[in-house]
Amino acid sequence: MNNLRIVAPVVGALALLGTGAVTAPAQAQAPGRTQAPAAASLGRVCMFEAERGAYGAGHAAFAVKVRGEKNHWLYGSFGSSNDGPVAGWIKGGTWEKAHQHFAGVPDKDHGGAKYYTRYRCVNTRDGDVKRAQSWYGAVQKRGYNVASNNCLHMSLAVFKGYSETLRKDTRLKSATGNTPNDYYTKVLRTARWEGSHQV
What we know:
This protein has helices at about 1-20, 95-105, 130-140, 150-160, 165, 180-190, and strands spanning about 45-50, 60-65, 75, 90-95, 120-125, 195-199. The chain is of the alpha+beta class. The chain has a six-stranded antiparallel β-sheet, sandwiched between helices. A hairpin with an 8-residue loop joins strand 1 (about 45-50) and strand 2. The longest helix is centred in the N-terminal third of the chain and has 18 residues, at about 1-20.
C-alpha cells in the first residue's frame, strides 16, 4: 500500500508531461510580486478570477501569452460590467500591464475592494494567439448568456482555441453546469494547473 502511494504521483506527473500540457512550474517568487512570464518558446495561459463576482458564483477572465515573444499577452473578459462592456473586451500588452489591469479593477458591489482576487496559470508546448482571438470572436458573436455562454465559456474557448493540448485535455470539463469559483478551485486543480496566486 505504501508503495502505491509513492508510485501514483510519479506516474501522474509522467502522464502530464507526456500530454504536453504542463512543463516545469513557474519560479517561486516573493510575496506581492507579479508572476514572471514563461520562456519565449513556451505558451502560457492564466485564468483570473473574481470570487465575489456574479453574486458569489465568481467571474473568470483570461490571459494568454504570445508564443515566441518574451513578454506579450492578450487578456480580457466577457460579460462583466466591473472592468469593461458587458459584451466583453480584449487587450494586448506585457504581463505587468495585464496584471496591473486586473489588480486595479474595483469591486463596485463591495466598496471598491479588488474585484479580481486570484489567478492560476499553466505552461503549454503550443500556443496560437490568432486562433485564440478567432475563438473569442465566435463566442462574443453568440452574445452573453449566464447559463450557456458566460465568462467561463469565454475563458475556456480562448484557452482551447490557443492550445490544441488544452483542447484535448479531458480534465478541462465543459463550462456549462460549473460556476467560475468551482472551476477555478476544483477543475483547474485536478487538471494540474499551477497553484493559486493573489492578484
